Amino acid sequence: MSEKALRLGTRRSKLAMAQSGMVADAVSQVTGRPVELVPVTTYGDISREHLAQIGGTGVFVAALREALQRGEVDFAVHSLKDLPTTQPEGLVLAAIPEREDPRDVLVARDGLKFTDLPDGARIGTGSPRRMAQLNGYARAHGLNIETVPIRGNVDTRIGFVKSGELDAVVLAAAGLNRVGRSDEVTDILPVDMILPAPGQGALAVECTEGNPELIAALAELDDPHTRAAVTAERSLLAALEAGCSAPVGALADLPPLSAPLERGDSQGDERIVKEMRLRGVVGRIDGSALVQLSTTGPVPRTHDEAMALGRELATEMLAQGAAGLMGERAQ
Fold first, then answer.
1. Which of 81, 84, 76 is nearest to 102 (CA)?
2. Of 172, 151, 11, 52, whose CA–CA distance to 106 is shortest?
3. Contact 259, 273 (CB under 8 A)
4. Which pick of 76, 94, 175, 283 has the fewest CB atoms within 10 Å?
5. Do 182 and 101 contact (CB within 8 A), yes or no?
6. pLDDT tens sequence across 10-48
7. Strands 145-149 and 104-108
């Protein structure tokens, strides 16, 4: 490869620039070429409407993909949870690097944990998925909370708590870790309480299929376990015919690894992994009904096997009435 700088398309937000910068450094190491960030404004960045109202699916992605297709950038970095489940012609998901912490976290006033929040606590989130699960958990445990729809970047959302407008906000652990603000987390919400969005914590590195040399270089950043996990999660989302803004949570993990590591056993990552567990949830936003199921199978060795795991669980969830809980289904 020549020494000409590679152009990396990224959203303009502080978080997007931070995570794209991490990918840029890794790509530069692999290719030996400088990488230049090219900020692109997306519709999701300029619209003040709630994501569920503007469709959710692709609102942070379309402008980046158009820049790729026009040749204005060489590759782009997305938050994987923002990607529509259908891959457009001519573009390749060249790398899915190792995933950050996929969990949701609480940032609350006075350092409070979720179970310490006062009666009637106002909790901000822009996600129907989080609302459905938070409200469902509260109902099941006799808690009284109010989920409040919010938009904005990390600073804006945490600002609602600091100003006293809200008691707490729920954010993705990965985002706070990437912008160096994990010290503001007051509680990590376990996945048996709230499942993350499909693909949460993972990044997607995309380029055009007509650049085999770049595809090969970007493939060096790919993490096979992360790719298998998020492929299963996104297959579930697609089979439910749901978009990014639907109240769907999913997490594929490797139980022999996850359990010891959650206990703080640093040797956990040396164990032999033979199975992948996929959990999914769909719920009404008020938490009055949830369908939550899981399945376990051999660790997928191919894209098709990972897709099959997601479809299998989606079929079971639909049989339990998941479709009626999602409201908007993709046309």
1. 81
2. 172
3. no
4. 94
5. no
6. 988 888 999 999 999 999 999 999 999 999 886 555 445
7. unpaired
How far apart CA 147 and CA 284 sit, in angstroms, is 13
| Rounded Cα gap, residues 3 and 298, in angstroms | 43
Task: Give the separation between CA 322 and CA 290, rounded to whole angstroms.
Answer: 8
- In the predicted model, is pLDDT for residue 272 greater than 70? no
Q: Is the distance from CB of 99 to CB of 202 less than 8 angstroms? A: yes
Distance CA 249, CA 267 (A): 29
Pairwise CA distance, residues 93 & 111, whole Å? 40
Structure token digits, residue 33? 């070429």
Catalytic residues: 81-82, 129-130, 151, 157, 244
Residue listed under structure tokens 């457009």: 88
Q: What is the pLDDT of residue 86?
A: 87
For tokens 């009626």, the residue is 324
246, 327 in Cβ contact below 8 A? yes
Q: What's the CA gap between 272 and 250, in Å, rounded?
A: 24
| pLDDT range class, residue 221, cuts 50, 70, 90 | very high
The predicted model scores a pTM of 0.87
3-class secondary structure per residue, the chain: CCCCCEEEEEECCHHHHHHHHHHHHHHHHHHCCCEEEEEECCHHHHCCCCHHHHCCCCCCCHHHHHHHHCCCCCEEEEEHHHCCCCCCCCEEEEECCCCCCCCEEEEEHHHCCHHHCCCCEEEEECCHHHHHHHHHHHHHCCCCEEEEECCCCHHHHHHHHHCCCCCEEEEEHHHHHHCCCHHHCCEEECCCCCCCCCCCCCEEEEEECCCHHHHHHHHHHCCHHHHHHHHHHHHHHHHCCCCCCCCEEEEEECHHHHHHHHCCCHHHHHCCCCEEEEEEEEECCCCCCEEEEEEEEECCCCHHHHHHHHHHHHHHHHHCCHHHHCCCCCC
- The number of beta carbons lying within 10 Å of the beta carbon of residue 120 is 10
Distance (Å, whole) CA 328 – CA 81: 18
